[in-house]
Amino acid sequence: MRSLPEADPGLPDIRSPLRYLWWNARRQARSLLAGIGFATLWWLVQALVPAVLGKGIDAVTAKDTGALLTWASILLGLGLLQAFTGIMRHRMAVFNWLSAAYRTVQVTARQAARLGATLPKKVSTGEVVSVGNSDIAHIGSSMDILLRGTGSVVAIVAVTVILLTTSVPLGLLVLFGVPLMAVAVSPLLRPLHRRQKHQRELTGELSTRAADIVAGLRVLRGIGGEQVFAARYGEESQRVRHAGVGVARVESLLEGAQILLPGLLIAVVTGVGATFAVGGEISTGDLVALYGYAAFLIGPLRTLTEAADKLTKGHVAARRVIRILSIEPEVTGGAETSGGGVLRDSYSGVTLQPGTLTAVAAGAPEEAAAIADRLGRYASGDVTFGAVELATLPMDEIRSRILVAGNDARLFTGRLRNELDVRDAASDEEVRAALHTACAEDIVEALPDGLDALVSEAGREFSGGQQQRLRLARALLTDPEVLILVEPTSAVDAHSEARIAERLAKARAGRTTMICTTSPLVLDRADHVIYVEDGRVLAEGTHRHLLAAAPRYAATVTREED
């Protein structure tokens, strides 16, 4: 059994939707060719069954027992071969569907991780959800349909050749009738795809609204807006439903046309064949075989229509996927290396000395957060790390050496231990030490399964203060060279805040740490305090020194105490 997905999906060709689909096809060329081979043989076996039945009937008419046994044996062999090829065709179809879909998941997930905070700025949540929910399925289906679609073309050609050898008029009737059927159905595809696109856009908008409501549910309840937003969600969901009904109307017409039009062709071919049989131009067995061919052609004809539909959907889906894959991150890295040292933001003047605990207090919290983003290379800025520009270091190196932990970080679903020890490298003692520093032991002790307890989506079973302490423990367990914490104690009580400040100073002793805060309890434990106003360093020193020497600093931090 082969495992999916691949370890390395490779670099996709995003120059156009067709090139992306072709890249997918080339990545799984062997399985595609094998599937096409099985599908073609599967169709051909079915195409030969009417001919064998006709020969058997002619043997009965001629009372030739030997010939009847021969053709019956051939029919049995065709049945066994059809069963085998059908199983293998389906197996390869599923494999190809999964390969293309999971490969798309891999490259989009890799791109999402690469883009980081850039992605939600460029693409809405609903758009990303729609890519994950529907577009990967359409891309998988576009690979799957190549098997049956190619085989159906070969089967139609084979039946046409057989009919031409039996009766030239009948063969020509099928030869020209099949393209006419396809042309007759094609006008329905464009409105179908237009309505499907509209429905998908509405679904994406609805998903975005749902994500916003869930994220802000606590706030909405606090201001009494829960029912208002629920009503708006209901209105938008009804628009999605109406759009779905519109899609279903066209799909029902298409399904009906796929049955009606081939049925008309069957009726015409069978009627003409019956006329030839009455006139003695073809035998009774040929007439039965003729009807079998006409009935068989329904399958390949419907498959061709299905192929046109799925390939078009795959093309549209690929366009949306490459839109995400073509986005470039707002910040990029280089190829230099740094031995570490002083981390300095030239714009603000904030300087982090190696091995010290530095606190940054700002008149406006967003100013300190902006400095943290620049120091962590989440935003562009003139920042140096030792003797090297931070922008010239590879992003992987920056992320492994400098960690910015803010309150917008999420807790994910899974076991609590795995959620805290994201690198899966910490011992039990190290996990306990991090929980102790973050004053989070009581959270774990209250859980029936302790560290093995399952965390629900976004850690919603924990209060805001509990989530903040768990996020702090997770940041400490990563043990980066430089740790930057943004308001790590804003949601905890004063008693816990004092203990965290004391323990954090001890836990990070000898390593570079920066805390963005205006809490006097934390500021008093810092080795060095920097006061920022209007984005620039206004004063620096110890907390007690600044309280006496910098009135604006004192006004900012004492407001916290009132």
From TrEMBL:
The residue ranges of the ABC transporter domain are 322-559
Pfam families from the UniProt entry:
ABC_membrane, ABC_tran
Q: Which SUPFAM superfamilies match?
A: ABC transporter transmembrane region, P-loop containing nucleoside triphosphate hydrolases
Residue ranges annotated as transmembrane are 32-53, 65-84, 145-164, 259-282, 288-305
Q: Which UniProt keywords apply?
A: ATP-binding, Membrane, Nucleotide-binding, Transmembrane, Transmembrane helix
InterPro entries given in the database record = ABC1_TM_dom, ABC1_TM_sf, ABC_transporter-like_ATP-bd, ABC_transporter-like_CS, P-loop_NTPase, Type_1_exporter
Under the GO molecular function aspect, what terms does this record hold?
ATP binding
The record describes its membrane topology as: Multi-pass membrane protein
Q: Which domain of life is it from?
A: Bacteria
Q: ABC transmembrane type-1 domain: from which residue to which, for each copy?
A: 33-313
Q: Primary place of residence?
A: membrane
Subcellular location, record wording: Cell membrane
Keyword Membrane in the entry? The reply is yes
Q: PANTHER family attached here?
A: ATP-BINDING CASSETTE SUB-FAMILY B MEMBER 10, MITOCHONDRIAL (PTHR43394:SF1), ATP-DEPENDENT PERMEASE MDL1, MITOCHONDRIAL (PTHR43394)
Q: What is this protein called?
A: ABC transporter ATP-binding protein
Classification from the root reads: Bacteria, Bacillati, Actinomycetota, Actinomycetes, Streptosporangiales
